Amino acid sequence: MREEVLPGGNTTGAVLIDGVVHKRASPWTTTVHAVLRHLEDAGFDAAPRALGFDDQGREMLTYLTGETIGDRVPWPGWASADSMLAQVGRWLRRVHDLTADFAPPQDEHWFIGGAMGPGLVVGHQDAAPYNAVVDGDRLIGFCDWDIAGPSSRDWDLAFSALTWVPLASPRDGAPLSDHDLRERSRRLQLLLDAYGYDGDRRAFGTVAPQRARRQAGVIRQMADAGDAASVALLPIADLLERSATAVEALPDDFWVDRGTA
Length: 261
Ligand SMILES: Nc1ncnc2c1ncn2[C@@H]1O[C@H](COP(=O)(O)OP(=O)(O)O)[C@@H](O)[C@H]1O
Ligand SMILES: [Mg+2]
Known about the structure:
By secondary structure, the chain is α+β, with helices and mostly antiparallel strands.
């Protein structure tokens, strides 16, 4: 049967066979599938549905029809459109609200470790532009739930803020102008407003760099353990650490009122 390699994988990648996504499974895949079934049972259709495993032990998922970034450089315009950012905020809110009561299976196992507990939600943890599926200017949903896991709302929001606002530093090392900073502040508020965030927005000043450093740490740890995909991601670990330092240096008013001033 014909296997079509899907473009844009950062780690294991995925193939399409007869309209169904097949992807190498991990010890945590059955727990992730339980999350996807939980969302499906709630009528949420902006995530792939879990279809079990094929005869090679690969996980099977429904294919979200639409456009992805794939291997494109530069990223398409929708990755920086305000309307998409607002949809991402609403998408995260729905996922968090719907998973606040998620009861994990007995053999609960997550990529990031840990366990569900009171006050936690299931964060996608990688809801970045490169995992979004869109149709025109509409967000269809996010694929790649591999590293989903127990999270505070802020922790998951912080990763999407890093990649969508973005809060991350430019890859080419170009300095940010004052205009860029105002834009970033405005877009952060847009994301948080769309989420319906009612926490302390200055909290992002501490959570976002912590989140970036944690991601970098996980990449480095896996690379040290010999994981080839993580070795390839080492430049991203550098970028995340550089971004964390830059975010920590942002002025206090960035987090609240700079964009509306
Ligand atoms: N369920 C899905 N629906 C639509 N496209 C998908 C789906 N799963 C994966 N893809 C496509 O395949 C690419 C690689 O899959 P992904 O799960 O992101 O792998 P990796 O973990 O290697 O990043 C994605 O960037 C996306 O383009
Ligand atoms: Mg991916």
